[in-house]
Amino acid sequence: MSLTVRLATRLGALALDVAIEAESGETVAVLGPNGSGKTTLLRCLAGLLPIDAGRIELDGEVLDDPDGGVLVTPERRPVAVVFQDYLLFPNMTAVDNVAFGLRARGVAKGDARRAAVEWLDRVGLGDHGHHRPRALSGGQAQRVALARALATEPRLLLLDEPLAALDVGTRGDVRRDLRRHLSTFAGIGVLVTHDPIDAHALADRVVILEAGRVVQAGTLAEVSARPQSRYVADLVGVNLLAGTGVDGAVVTEAGGRVVPAESVVGPAFLMIPPAEVALHHQHPEGSPRNVWAVTVTDVDPSGERVRVRVAGEVPLVAEITPGALDELALRPGDELWASVKATEITSYPA
């Protein structure tokens, strides 16, 4: 079983132009900032939005091909969707919600209900079949929505931010359950998420969308090792600088000069872990190769670490301890010096 997607479509200001491939038993996570086209892509795969050009093919069956005059309607596609807000029917019990997809595909009422009961047992809700959605917790509603999707035995399972509506305490438990079900799912999964934790836990590969285009794809480890955009760098929690390598240094787009341990020639990216950025009120002593004048723009305490964003010719995020924050007494607007050891900078061609 395989999924081959080559599509282009326009929706308002968004011009989506995407190519994705996936194999049986594989889950692909699609990440990207708001407005990048993630949900639009899912709507195209589900048949809720026709494409303008290209081709969507699932297991040898063409689902959408404008040039060939092919457009398989949503109800005839072997595709199931778990929406962010689950879209359970409020006047139906959990059993009836799960049975609905089967009934819509022509399965007899008795058979559909028996299958629904079985699927509720699989997701741990066998004793909640008579409950309506308003009597379910967020995690339980998510499980009902997943059972409804899987009961139809889809070849393609689409998950649109399936954990976003859950509180932090519930999310971990439901994520583990979802991972267990995806690990035994014989079809192909496409997961839209903003959370790299979800991508790491649930997906085999990630596809990064920005402004309707795929800017990076691979395993999360591959993407994290060499981010190709500021969004990806922020996503994995590192500093990413773009510039041009000349004479052992990289001159950034803002005119800053950075010296990595390994020189690179031509267009290049530099990756700097925030924990390796040191902040000083005075110019550091000695002759460090990477020292820049900066201004504090934001101080964000987060648990045992504090992220300090600084602006200048080399804009950076530094990660320091609360004790260091107290010692430095940092406030937005403070003028500082930032330094980074050359050995802590990873450079690679753009």
Task: Provide a brief overview of the structure.
It contains nine helices and 21 strands.
Shape: elongated
**Helical element count?**
9
Task: Give the C-level CATH assignment of the largest domain.
Answer: Alpha Beta
H/E element sequence:
EEEHEEEEHHHEHEHEEHHEEEEEEEEHEE
Radius of gyration: 24 Å
- Poorly predicted spans: none
Mean pLDDT: 91
Q: Name the CATH superfamily assignment of the largest domain.
A: P-loop containing nucleotide triphosphate hydrolases
CATH topology of the largest domain: Rossmann fold
Distance linking N and C termini: 34 Å
Number of domains: 2
How are the strands of the largest sheet arranged?
Answer: 7-8-9-3-10-11
Query: What kind of sheet is the major sheet?
Result: 6 strands, mixed
Helicity level, as a percent range? 25-40%
**What fraction of the residues are assigned to beta strands by DSSP?**
25-35%
Kindly state the number of beta strands.
21
**CATH architecture grouping of the largest domain:** 3-Layer(aba) Sandwich
**Based on helices, strands and strand pairing, what is the structural class?**
alpha+beta
